Amino acid sequence: MALFARHATGLRLERMQASPQHSGETFINTYPASTPRVVDDKPSLDDFMFRGEDRTPAHPLPTLDPRPQWTRPIDTGLRTTWLGHSTVLLEIDGVRVLTDPVWGERASPFSFMGPKRFQPVPVDISQLPPLDAVLISHDHYDHLDYPSIRELAKLQVPFITSLGVGVHLEAWGVPAERIIELDWWESFTVPAGLTLTAAPSHHFSGRSLHDRNATLWSSFVLRGERHAVFFSGDTGLSPHFTEIGQRLGPFDLVMIEVGAFHPSWGSVHLGPDNAITAWRQLGSGRFLPVHWGTFNLAMHPWCEPAEVLLAKVPEGLVMPRLGEVIEPAQFETAQPWWRDLSTQHSRGCARQAAEFLVLPAKD
Fold it and tell me: Which one is the CATH code of 44-356: 3.40.718.10, 3.60.15.10, 1.10.443.10, 3.20.20.150?
């Protein structure tokens, strides 16, 4: 099937093997993880299928139609629309970039099984405004989505991604001349004038049992004439955040993954607490959380990342509703809109709020 693993050959393979991140056989993490993996606590298949409370909301999340706002001028030059999970329409200094576009029903190679989205995308791909580029951080199913790429391939825009991921894009209909694969610290400037730089992350890749770490994973920095944005992709905590901030900052906005975490995944996913640490290590920018609120990919309550962030770092936090078009510089105070889903299934949010909003005792 077209959506399964593809393997690079020829000049693409030679370039991949020449990367400092390549061992000669696969890509590797060349930065040490700050949070070691807890192997003894690894979740089982039963955990994924049957355990964990409040992993999905009782009702669809509050959603706005962004299309009327997309037609209006941008006051500050930087505007975002969170469309679910890690999919964001980023408008920066007159350039529109779509990150990790996933419109598919499941983060899976199968249409009948695997993690199913509990929240639809606010708009169809055909309803997006004209794009200047599509950005894809790595090849996991919740970031590289076959039906979405097939639809976006019809657009005459470049696809910027990590080394090796282009083998999938080309197989799915994206012309080779519109695929730009970057190694860490390499840059590409789209015709509209925005420079995208691949940067380190601590993660892994693969779409089957036979292509583990065959392609690279990256974070990205997007810099225009006036603004700069950091996009984490998927990553664990490591010293690369500090280096990225020093080499490619300062940033006006940082989009960092906060959901789908577990103690045994500590070296490859952040979760909200490590995301806060990563934000501080980057050293600048408003904080827009991504990688949550769409798929049931872990055992924690679906709203836990939002509650932790609101309790611990309300300052600098940008928490828009799905489809809400915002300018980070004008965003005021994050509001807990996710608590409005009521009834018994949202009691997990209430418990999370009670746990993380307890005031410290006075001396």
Answer: 3.60.15.10
